[in-house]
Each structure stands twice: as C-alpha cells, then as structure tokens.
Amino acid sequence: MKINIIRKVLEVNDRLADEIREKTNLYKTLVVNIMSSPGSGKTSILEKILPLLTEKGYNVGVIEGDIATIKDAQRISNKNIPVTQINTDKFGGDCHLGSEVILPALETFDLEKMDIVIIENVGNLVCPAEFDTGSDYNIVVISTTEGEDKPLKYPLMFRVCQFGIINKIDLLPYLDFDISELKTNINKINPNMEIVESSAKTVDGIEKIINWFENHLK
Ligand SMILES: Nc1nc2c(ncn2[C@@H]2O[C@H](COP(=O)(O)OP(=O)(O)OP(=O)(O)O)[C@@H](O)[C@H]2O)c(=O)[nH]1
Ligand SMILES: [Mg+2]
C-alpha cells in the first residue's frame, strides 16, 4: 500500500515534468536543474555565471528552492536577475522541488523571452535526485570539502546528472582531498558525465561552465 502511494506521487510528478518540457521546448527555453549538498556553492556559482550570461545577451531567470528564507533569491536579485523563490515549508517542508511547484514558478517568467531558466534545488544530495523537475539537464555540484566517496554513497544523484562541477578547488592546498579519486568514483557511477573543476572564489573554471550553457542552448 505504501509503495503504491509513492509510485503514484512519482507518476504524477513525471507526467507534469513531461508537460513542462513540452512547454519549454515550444519557447526554446533551456531549463537546467542544479543540485548539491547544502553549501557546495550553487548560489555562489550562479552569482558568477549570471552576469556573464547576461553580458553575452542571454535572458536568464532563476527559480530558487529552499525550505525556508529568501536569502539565495536576494543574492540573485542583487545581480539584477529575475528570480522566483519557492519555500517548501509552505508545502510540508519538502527536501526537494517537484514538478508541481516548478510549473507555477516557470509561469512567473515570460518564457517567450527567456533563453535559460536555472533551478537551484534544495541543498540535499538525496531527495532532489528522485524528482524530475521538468528540466532539460541536471547539474551536480560537489565541493572539495565533501570527500571523494560521495558519488559511491549517493549514486542516484550522480546517475541523473549530465554535468558535474567540482567546486572550491581553491581550497585543495589545505585539504587531504584526492580530486582524481573523486573523478574515478564519478566515472564508476556515470561514465558519461561531463566534469569541470571550478572555484566561485577565484573564478577558475567559470568560463567552462558558461561554455557548457552555450553549448546546450535550444
Ligand atoms: N573557498 C571557497 N568557498 C566557496 C566557494 N564556493 C562557495 N563558497 C562558500 O561556501 C559557502 C556556501 O556557498 P553557497 O553558494 O551559499 O552554497 P549553496 O550550495 O548555494 O548552499 P545552499 O543553497 O544552502 O544549499 C559560502 O560561504 C561561500 O562563500 C569556492 O569556490 N571556494
Ligand atoms: Mg544556495
């Protein structure tokens, strides 16, 4: 009985996610869902890439997902980027964003004018991977302070993402962290994942992230 309920929730979520993709395909809006543990640097990376994407002439919007607070949305808004906040504590405190909350959030943007909408999912390496948001691509950010074993311990997250950003590489000199071991572990779970190294502090690798977005525009 319990399993049936879970399956029904996921079926409804997947159906709505497909509807979202149909809609955004119509407008040629690229939708990208960024996921990671809390604090890996999702918002910090957005703060660096959004002004550069805007300078290049792209219209970009952001959907911010958090359980509580509008702190990340304020950081995005400070960059003069249109942003819609979803606080999941209004929907029972979910630890992820589902397509039922993404659809109305997307409708706050004029999709005809939007080239890219980026979803920053709730900081969590588990639940967000289970729920299709209707995005075209999923990105995982993993930072150098989290340990090389995370792809093996949280495999679904690394399976559902097409692009991986290894962030906080500026901290490498201070850590016992083996970046090649992390890459080997990512490869074991998802050999097709494209990977870049970045630092939102020194902006190393930020240009490569911009290139990834440009290469995946609709
Ligand atoms: N040294 C260093 N610090 C970073 C880097 N990226 C982010 N940080 C710091 O890490 C902390 C968390 O960064 P956020 O961008 O808020 O992380 P987040 O993934 O958006 O966090 P949640 O939204 O809470 O899940 C902040 O103190 C950032 O300044 C980086 O590349 N290098
Ligand atoms: Mg954030």
CATH hierarchy, class: Alpha Beta
Q: How many strand segments?
A: 7
Distance between the termini: 41 Å
C-alpha Rg (nearest Å): 17 Å
Bound molecules: guanosine-5'-triphosphate, magnesium ion
Count up the domains.
1
Strand order of the largest sheet: 3-2-4-1-5-6-7
| Helix proportion | 25-40%
Strand content: 15-25%
Tell me about the largest β-sheet: 7 strands, parallel
Following the backbone from N to C, one meets helices and strands in this order, namely: HEHEHEHEEHHEHEH
Structural class: alpha/beta
Shape: globular
- Poorly predicted runs: none
CATH fold descriptor: Rossmann fold
Q: How would the blueprint of this fold be written?
A:
Elements: H1 2-27, E1 30-36, H2 42-55, E2 60-66, H3 71-77, E3 83-87, H4 99-106, E4 116-120, E5 137-143, H5 150-153, H6 155-159, E6 163-167, H7 179-189, E7 194-197, H8 206-215
Parallel strand pairs: 1-4, 1-5, 2-3, 2-4, 5-6, 6-7
Helix pairs in contact: 1-4, 2-8
The structure holds guanosine-5'-triphosphate (GTP) and magnesium ion.
Please give a quick description of this structure.
Helices cover 39% and strands 18% of the residues.
